[in-house]
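Whiteboard transcription, Tuesday session. T.W. wrote the structure tokens on the left side:
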């Protein structure tokens, strides 16, 4: 056995003892890629088969009408609950009265199951 091979084997043995085990074969062993978990993460926050927010904002004027669209805008859509940011308390009261009609319009435009409820926030 050549002196270089013997020294390399001794070096590997010392390093393995010092590290508490053998060196991994490849640096990527045991690493996980984001795409492995992305679907589950999106599903857990209710966005897996959601709707693009820009698409929702564009459709909002058609769905709600000009008057309502000037005073309320979609803020977020999570787990089927659409949060609308409303500028004035009086408009919020009016939208509460229109909630059923808004939901029907949203379901007709976006499809069943995308929006299950509507919530309002003043701001």
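and on the right, the sequence the group agreed on:
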């Amino acid at each position: 056995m050549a002196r270089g091979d013997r020294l390399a084997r001794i070096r590997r043995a010392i390093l393995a003892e010092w590290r508490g085990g053998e060196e991994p074969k490849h640096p990527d062993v045991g690493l996980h890629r984001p795409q492995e978990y992305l679907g589950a993460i999106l599903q857990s926050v209710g966005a897996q088969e959601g709707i693009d927010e820009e698409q929702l904002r564009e459709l909002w004027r058609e769905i709600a009408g000009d008057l309502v669209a000037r005073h309320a805008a979609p803020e977020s859509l999570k787990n089927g609950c659409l949060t609308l940011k409303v500028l004035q308390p009086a408009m919020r009261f009016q939208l509460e009265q229109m909630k059923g009609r808004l939901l029907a319009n949203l379901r007709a435009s976006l499809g069943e199951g995308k929006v299950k409820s509507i919530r309002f926030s003043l701001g």
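Someone added at the bottom: The helical segments are 3-19, 35-44, 53-64, 66-71, 89-110.
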